[in-house]
Amino acid sequence: MSVGTSSGAPLGGYRIGVTAARKVEEQITLLERRGAKVDWAPALSSDPNQVDDAQLRAATMRVLAEPIDIFVATTGIGMKAWFEAARTWGLHDELVSAIGASEVLARGPKSVGALRRNGLRELWAPDSECFEDVLVHLRGRDLAGLRIVVQEHGQSLSMVAHALQRQGARVDVVTVYRVASAEDPEPMFSMVELIAERELDAVTFTSAPAVASLMEAAGVTGRRDEVVAAFQADVVATCVGPVTAAAFELWGVPTIMPERSRLAAMIKLLETELPSRREGLSTEVAGHVLLLHSDRVLLDGVEVRLSPAPLAVLQALLVNPGHVVARRELLATLPSGTAGSEHAVEMAVARLRAALGTKVVQTVVKRGYRLAVAS
Question: Counting beta carbons within 10 angstroms of the beta carbon of residue 279, is it exposed (0 to 12), middle (13 to 18) or buried (19 or more)?
Answer without folding.
Answer: exposed
